[in-house]
Design a protein that fits this description.
Blueprint (H helix, E strand, L loop, with lengths): L16 H15 L10 H11 L8 E3 L3 H10 L4 E3 L2 H6 L11 E2 L7 H8 L3 H7 L2 H4 L3 E4 L3 H12 L7 E4 L7 H9 L1 H5 L5 E4 L6 H12 L4
Parallel strand pairs: 2-3, 2-4, 4-5, 5-6
Antiparallel strand pairs: 1-6
Helix pairs in contact: 1-2, 2-11, 5-6, 6-8, 8-9
Length: 221
């Protein structure tokens, strides 16, 4: 049985993988204004732009001054990565993880539907409650559900374990902007200094969240 054959080339495009990778990051650095980004978070910003395709993302980025150090140290020490959605978890590049870190998403856990029904909340938020045994010192990546970010903050405010760092980039029209604003104001409002990165407004998503984790996992671009 013969294998697939390439169709006739009809469009002019770059199809060299390494060249695409290099040129993509060069384009971002050429077009994005990174002047306001903290020096240690520049590669974080670049990867988040790469994951979203939006060079104007920089103006909406909020990065806690301790975010990069806190997240990278935690990951080097073997901290798990807790994700709100499978798409976020699948976007984390295993080869970049410094300690073979475990990547978890509990959305399909059989306990989740009953918890969501009992609490009258989303399954994504209910799944966050199952993070508790792993949450202390973990790195959190939320890219889909505002309810997941709200639930995490409520757990912390209730005296629950605190993660080492939070990538809080849920996307959407209902609650996304508000949940990210709550994350950014956690220190001012409640005196809890939790290192984070977020994006003001409605933008976010799985690719953006996993791109942030990939940048935090390894210094190399």
């Amino acid at each position: 049985m013969s294998g697939p054959s390439r169709p006739p080339r009809r469009y002019p495009y770059v199809d060299d993988g390494p060249a695409i990778y290099v040129d993509s990051f060069a384009t971002i650095r050429r077009e994005a204004d990174l002047a306001a980004v903290p020096p240690d978070a520049e590669k974080l910003a670049v990867r988040m732009i790469h994951g979203s395709g939006q060079v104007d993302l920089v103006r909406d980025l909020e990065i806690h001054p301790d975010l990069v150090t806190a997240a990278r140290t935690a990951l080097m020490l073997g901290a798990p990565i807790l994700c709100d959605a499978r798409m976020v978890a699948m976007g984390v590049t295993a080869g970049r993880l410094p300690a073979g870190n475990d990547v978890h998403c509990f959305l399909t856990d059989p306990r989740v539907p009953a918890l969501a029904a009992a609490w009258s909340t989303t399954r994504t938020a209910a799944a966050v409650s199952l993070w508790e045994p792993l949450l202390d010192g973990a790195v959190v990546a939320i890219g889909n559900a505002p309810t997941a970010l709200f639930h995490l903050l409520e757990m912390v405010l209730a005296g629950g374990p605190r993660p080492a760092a939070v990538v809080g980039c849920p996307v959407g029209f209902i609650g996304a902007a508000e949940s990210k604003a709550a994350l950014a104001s956690l220190g001012a409002d409640h005196g809890i200094d939790l290192p984070y990165v977020t994006v003001r407004g409605r933008r976010g998503g799985s690719a953006m969240a996993s791109s942030a984790i990939n940048a935090l996992a390894q210094e190399a671009e």
